Every structure is written in structure tokens, then in C-alpha cells.
């Protein structure tokens, strides 16, 4: 294909072969394939929201190996859709175990769910070993006629 024709075809569909803005191999059917995301150094952030309400559809151990946060927010509250996902919470343990440094990590669930309670109880020893703290808050914010749980985070 001539260069000018190749250039036109790539401009006609700018999203072609992109997954989350990253160029993928068109021969690969899986966006999680080894060629879809180039490896790089980990990214350190203060606060990270676990994607898609902590659903296992988009988050795996690789996320936690590469996105290293002091605080992770878990917002899932839909058991019918697997949110939060036990597999994602386990992926945090797996990913954090490979950091090579024992930085403090705080997990902030926005809802009290059976999945997070069971995970907390069943993996508590591993959490302590990995320096992971689960933040439970009994604080409530009242705004107009609504009240909801709240958590204060200081940096």
C-alpha cells in the first residue's frame, strides 16, 4: 500500500487498533494480550480509583504492579454484576507482593459489602504482611436532606 494511501486509511478511523488509547496488534483478539500494552516503569500516585467499580472486567494483578498508590478507592456495590470483585481484591495482594518495597497502602471501600468483608477476614494476615490497611469509617456527612458515609484522607 502506498504511503499516502496508508496515511489516509489510518485517518479515516482514528480509533482503529486502539484500546484505551494504546495501539494494539490487529492480529490479537484480546486487549490484554502481551502486545497490547508496552511494559514500563511503575507509576506512583497518592490516590487511585480502582477502575469500573472494582469489576474484574478491567482490572488484574498487572494494574496493581504498575499503578502503585498510597490509597486505592473501591467503589463497587453491585453484587449482581460482581462489583466489587473478589478477584480484583486478590489481585491487589498479588500485585503488591511484587513491588519489592513495603510501602503502606490503604484500601478505602465506599460501601460495606459482603465481598469486601469476607475478603478482609480471609486475607487479613496477608494484608498485614504486605502493609495493607483497610480503612473503615463510621463517619457520616449530612448535606441538606441526605446523609452518606465519608472518609477523610490527608496527604
From TrEMBL:
<dbReference type="GO" id="GO:0030425">
    <property type="term" value="C:dendrite"/>
</dbReference>
<dbReference type="GO" id="GO:0005875">
    <property type="term" value="C:microtubule associated complex"/>
</dbReference>
<dbReference type="GO" id="GO:0007409">
    <property type="term" value="P:axonogenesis"/>
</dbReference>
<dbReference type="GO" id="GO:0045202">
    <property type="term" value="C:synapse"/>
</dbReference>
<feature type="compositionally biased region" description="Polar residues">
    <location>
        <begin position="22"/>
        <end position="37"/>
    </location>
</feature>
<dbReference type="GO" id="GO:0016358">
    <property type="term" value="P:dendrite development"/>
</dbReference>
<dbReference type="GO" id="GO:0031114">
    <property type="term" value="P:regulation of microtubule depolymerization"/>
</dbReference>
<dbReference type="GO" id="GO:0043025">
    <property type="term" value="C:neuronal cell body"/>
</dbReference>
<dbReference type="GO" id="GO:0008017">
    <property type="term" value="F:microtubule binding"/>
</dbReference>
<dbReference type="InterPro" id="IPR026074">
    <property type="entry name" value="MAP1"/>
</dbReference>
<protein>
    <submittedName>
        <fullName>MAP1A protein</fullName>
    </submittedName>
</protein>
<dbReference type="InterPro" id="IPR036866">
    <property type="entry name" value="RibonucZ/Hydroxyglut_hydro"/>
</dbReference>
<dbReference type="GO" id="GO:0005874">
    <property type="term" value="C:microtubule"/>
</dbReference>
<dbReference type="GO" id="GO:0003779">
    <property type="term" value="F:actin binding"/>
</dbReference>
<dbReference type="GO" id="GO:0005829">
    <property type="term" value="C:cytosol"/>
</dbReference>
<dbReference type="GO" id="GO:0000226">
    <property type="term" value="P:microtubule cytoskeleton organization"/>
</dbReference>
<feature type="region of interest" description="Disordered">
    <location>
        <begin position="1"/>
        <end position="38"/>
    </location>
</feature>
Amino acid at each position: 500500500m502506498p504511503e499516502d494511501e496508508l496515511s489516509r486509511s489510518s485517518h479515516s478511523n482514528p480509533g482503529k487498533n486502539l484500546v484505551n488509547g494504546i495501539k494494539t496488534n490487529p492480529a490479537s483478539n484480546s486487549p490484554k494480550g502481551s502486545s497490547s500494552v508496552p511494559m514500563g516503569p511503575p507509576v506512583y500516585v497518592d490516590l487511585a480509583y480502582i477502575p469500573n467499580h472494582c469489576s474484574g472486567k478491567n482490572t488484574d494483578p498487572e494494574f496493581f504492579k504498575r499503578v502503585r498508590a498510597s490509597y486505592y478507592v473501591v467503589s463497587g456495590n453491585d453484587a449482581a454484576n460482581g462489583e466489587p470483585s473478589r478477584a480484583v481484591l486478590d489481585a491487589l495482594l498479588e500485585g503488591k507482593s511484587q513491588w519489592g518495597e513495603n510501602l503502606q497502602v490503604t484500601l478505602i471501600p465506599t460501601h460495606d459489602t459482603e465481598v469486601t468483608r469476607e475478603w478482609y477476614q480471609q486475607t487479613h494476615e496477608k494484608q498485614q504482611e504486605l502493609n495493607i490497611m483497610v480503612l473503615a469509617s463510621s463517619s457520616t456527612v449530612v448535606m441538606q436532606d441526605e446523609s452518606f458515609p465519608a472518609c477523610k484522607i490527608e496527604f
